[in-house]
Write a structure and sequence with these properties.
The chain has 184 residues and is an alpha+beta fold. The chain has one domain: Protein Transport Mog1p, Chain A (3-Layer(aba) Sandwich), CATH 3.40.1000. It has helices spanning 2-16, 25-32, 39-51, 64-73, 82-91, 131-142, 168-182, and strands at 97-102, 111-117, 121-127, 149-154, 157-163. The chain has a five-stranded antiparallel β-sheet, sandwiched between helices.
Length: 184
């Protein structure tokens, strides 16, 4: 039963970014205000951070509220923030709805946010401690066989886009998202 729950949570996160309720305006502003470190700072601490690729586990690992809170409190620095990526997509005219934090731990990430664009495109932005952890997380995610899904990495952040219904329009929108993400 626990294994089924774990698989369900992982698949749910991979498909639609389900999880916590949408972030409030104050939460988004608070997350956007978190300081970013420079690249040299990140390189100097990389060995230590590598040991703690995910946020520390809460006392009760079955307490999903605590898991979400812990991941939000331990976001990495020195990479593209999920809220920055989503804001950039919106500035480019991409409609995003059902924006929610989802568990990052299954992918070796520190923090992840999922969203839908319309009813046919699901996306997820995950923040990692370094590019190697992002690559490892992408490989972990690829082990879950899902059709019409692509993962790209920029710095230590990944963008996963999945067309729930593949059409020329969803292909074009996915490419637009990846192009914008690459410029962040």
């Amino acid at each position: 039963m626990i294994r089924r729950l774990s698989i369900s949570v992982t698949l749910c996160a991979a498909l639609t970014g389900c999880g916590k309720s949408p972030l409030s305006q104050s939460q988004r502003q608070s997350l956007a205000a978190s300081p970013a470190s420079n690249a040299s700072e990140r390189r100097e601490t990389a060995p230590e951070r590598r040991e703690t690729a995910t946020a520390p586990a809460p006392q009760n690992p079955r307490d999903f509220g605590a898991l979400f809170a812990n991941e939000a409190a331990h976001r990495p620095t020195g990479t593209i923030k999920a809220d920055e990526a989503l804001a950039a997509f919106r500035r480019d005219g991409v409609e995003l709805n059902t924006v929610r934090q989802h568990l990052a731990r299954p992918y070796g990430a520190r923090y992840c946010v999922g969203a839908m664009s319309g009813t046919t495109l699901a996306l997820s932005v995950c923040e990692y401690v370094d590019p190697e952890a992002a690559q490892a997380g992408a490989e972990t995610s690829r082990k879950i066989l899902l059709a019409n899904r692509e993962i790209r990495i920029s710095q230590a952040t990944s963008l996963t886009v999945r067309a729930l219904e593949r059409t020329p329009a969803t292909d074009a929108l996915a490419q637009r998202l990846f192009d914008r993400f690459a410029k962040l």
